[in-house]
Amino acid sequence: MAEKVSSRGRAQTKSVLGKVVSITVLVFAVIFLFLAQSAYWINHTVFNQDSFTNITTTALQQESSRDAISQVIVNNALQDRPVLQRVVGERAQSLISGLLASDLSAQAINALTSKTYQYATSSDRQDISINLASIKDPLSNVLAISQNEQTTERISNLPDEITLLKRDEFPNLSGFVVAMLWLAPLLWLVTLLLFTVYVLLDRKEYAKKVYFAGVAIIGVGIFGYLTSPYVPSPIAASIPTIEIRPLAQNLLTGYLNPFRSQMVFMISFTGLTLIVFNQRFNIAKLFKSFDKKQTK
Fold first, then answer.
1. SS3 content of the chain, % helix, strand, coil (to 5)
2. How far is CA 251 from the centre of its chain?
3. How far apart are CA 232 and CA 242, in angstroms?
4. In a 3-state reduction of DSSP, which class is residue 170?
5. Which of 34, 89, 165, 198 could form a disulfide with 85 if both were Cys (CB 3.0 to 4.6 A apart)?
6. pTM (2 decimals)?
């Protein structure tokens, strides 16, 4: 009797231990999956210069981004003339914002995009500045038409470049970005290995493990999709220059949109795979039951 109780206790302990190991493996698989997806996003969005350029250019052309840039320009240009800034500052900002959306500023926007890419990916960062040479004369002419000679004179003396973000105003993440780029294949390999181990730990419950793994993958996708929109705001808030924060938020939102698309694809693909697996599994069970009846 004592031996039966002892063996039953050992079996229960082994069962509990197996479940703990199984859950632990699944948790690590989920973590590595999220890291692998992040590495894929970095590789195909941040380090893909074409993709990065398209996203950055689109974000810079948004009205709120142009307004933020124009506000920084006017604040720098008229910082020693507060009365004049109060009188014409809003009009000057509106004019500059409009000029930034025109073909006159295409070269300046392209240069700004290149500097942003260098800022995000290089350890030797430089200040992000915008070249104003292409908009100084048109801006002065427009203001002259409004017979505001004093403002025109001051605007015409704008510096050729104005700094939007200094090199040390934002944490340098280039080392992390490069590390994730190189670790991407290893992260995917470990993720695949962990999910395989999880499913094969108990072959008797193979189907149940597949369903649990699928639900876990979908959970990662939902987590990434729902949390990514909340990332830009706190990061943008860490930038000391208040005027530039809307621009930073637009850029970060644009960079994270491909990550959200990855999450949608992962959720959709995993859900479809589970549906197909369920149908095949049910069909297999049906054939087995049919064979048993035929045997009887």
1. 85, 5, 15
2. 10
3. 14
4. coil
5. 89
6. 0.81
